[in-house]
Amino acid sequence: MKVTLTPMEQRLAKALARWRQDTQRANGVTDRRVSEKHEVDIDLEGAGAELALARVLNVYPDLDNVPSEEDMVTRHGVRVDVKATRYTTGRLLAVPWKKGHPADVYVLMVGKFPSYRVAGWIPTAELFQEQNLQDFGSGKVRGYALPQEALRPIGELA
Q1: For 10-141, where are the E strands, in sequence order?
Q2: Dihedral sign computed on CA atoms, order 124, 130, 136, 142
Q3: What H or E segment, with its residue span, contains residue 143?
């Protein structure tokens, strides 16, 4: 399923990304990103992906700027952590320090602001398995990774 954010959603995503950057740096929150991309770009992609998925699931994303372990909660109470990638064949990636955190599922959104495709979802317990632990390419950071083919269709979550 593909979603293109409306002009209003785009403005909201940009404001949310700026707000997250300003507030988190002012509060001394450490940027623990693994990517080489600029953190503002990462926050914009994350906010855009969250808004796109929220529309698909017909819920509000977490618009609070307090660090939390999930990006939204479905109507059925499922806690969702949203991951985004620009790469059409990109994998769902999760860093090791997220293991044991309260999100129930991870959802992968593929695309570039303002258009995204829902690649699928996976229960947290299935993602954080030893066989999914991989080198992220730098030789310095290992994390959990699954190809899109291993993900479940979004209709099964919604």
Answers
A1: 72-73, 79-85, 92-94, 105-112, 115-123, 133-135
A2: positive
A3: strand 142-146
Residue 157 belongs to some domain of the structure: no
156 occurs within a structural domain? no
Print the domain residue range for 85. Answer: 2-149
Report pLDDT digits (tens) over 93-112: 999 988 888 899 999 999 99
Confidence (pTM): 0.89
What domain count does the chain have? 1
Give the tens place of pLDDT for each residue, 116-148.
999 999 999 999 999 999 987 767 778 999 999
Q: Calculate the CA 42 to chain-centre distance.
A: 10
Residue 48 lies in a domain: yes
What backbone phi and psi angles, to 5 degrees, belong to 105?
-140, 160
Q: Give the C-alpha separation, 126 to 80, whole Å.
A: 14
pLDDT tens, residue by residue, 12-52: 999 999 888 887 666 665 555 555 555 678 889 999 999 99
Angle in degrees, CA 48, 53, 56, rounded to 5: 135
Specify whether the CB–CB gap between 144 and 96 falls below 8 A: yes
